[in-house]
Design a protein that fits this description.
By secondary structure, the chain is an alpha+beta fold. It has two domains: about 120 residues, N-terminal domain of MutM-like DNA repair proteins, CATH 3.20.190; about 120 residues, Helicase, Ruva Protein, domain 3, CATH 1.10.8.50. The protein is about 25% helix and about 20% strand. The chain is built from six helices and ten strands. Strand 9 and strand 10 form a beta hairpin. It binds a DNA duplex through loops.
Length: about 270
DNA sequence: CGCAGCGCCTGAAGGC
DNA sequence: TGCCTTCAGGCGCTGC
């Protein structure tokens, strides 16, 4: 499932390959989730940016092509059109290559908007700071989390306190910070630990090229290696690295959540 | 405005 | 072997 590190890996690979190219043809799956892809036809790609899990492709006509990969979205740039069953959109470029969006489960979304106008994309409009942003401080996280009485993990997944964490990295960050996912408020020291954990977990995962558990592939078809460094997610029943207590799993707001009941107290 | 609940999707895996 | 159920889960939408 592509989260910030996976999307960043794809962004870094795509940017040098498609920037400066014009889109000479565009086709899409008929679903309204993907059909806006054709609105980018005729535009020139200036650069590929990212906010949270959203890819923002700047076009030369004061618009942005916005792609969210959902659960199973994969972007690639083959030399020919893709006729596979899961192609949801593809854009032919003026160098003869194709930008192709495959998405088995169709949880992804594509939009074209006026540059910077995210008024119709609520999650993006309300997106919290990037983990790497200096504005993402312990004080910010403390205040953002305590504004709501929802469970801390649910808040992290909302993308509002901080951008880009999904189920994997939320579990990892909460474990690293020794913070209980089901808590509904957080102390200042715990918020400081959680802030640092978010930064560290996301940065390491980017360094590792993302986490490939099932579907995730980068823009070159490669796998990440961060799955070999997960310390909590998916390890229910295995001993906690810190205290050897078997990690536990439970469902928190419809998300499988793994945590250490001994270490993650606050 | 916040938020709980639901729906979207389909391949893989497990039960019988 | 094959049918059925369950699971994976990010996010947009609806209605309270």
């Amino acid at each position: 499932m592509p989260e910030l590190p996976e999307v960043e890996t794809i962004r870094a690979q795509l940017d040098p390959v498609i920037s400066g190219r014009s889109i000479v043809r565009a086709t899409s799956h008929p679903s309204g989730k993907f059909s806006p892809a054709i609105e980018a036809n005729g535009a020139l790609i200036e650069q590929v940016r990212r906010r949270g899990k959203y890819l923002l492709i700047d076009l030369d006509d004061d618009r942005e092509l916005i792609i969210h990969l959902g659960m199973t979205g994969v972007l690639s740039v083959p030399n020919n059109a893709d006729d596979g069953a899961y192609v949801r959109a593809q854009w032919e470029l003026d160098d003869g290559r194709w930008l192709v969006f495959n998405d088995v489960r169709r949880f992804g979304r594509i939009r074209v908007v006026t540059a910077g106008d995210y008024s119709t994309i609520a999650t993006l409009r309300n997106l919290g700071p990037e983990p790497s942003d200096p504005a993402f401080t312990a004080a910010h996280l403390h205040q953002a989390l305590n504004k709501s009485s929802r469970r801390l993990k649910t808040q992290l997944l909302s993308q509002r306190p901080v951008a880009g964490l999904g189920n994997i990295y939320a579990d990892e960050a909460l474990w690293l910070a020794k913070v209980r996912p089901t808590a509904r408020s957080i102390t200042k020291p715990a918020a400081a630990r959680l802030r640092d954990a978010c930064v560290k977990v996301i940065a390491s995962a980017i360094d590792n090229g993302g986490t490939t558990l099932r579907d995730y592939r980068d823009a070159e078809g490669g796998s990440g290696s961060n799955q070999f460094y997960l310390r909590c997610y998916g390890r229910s029943g295995e001993p906690c690295e810190r205290c050897a207590t078997p990690l536990r799993a439970m469902v928190v707001d419809a998300r499988t959540t793994t945590w250490c009941a001994v270490c993650q107290k606050s």
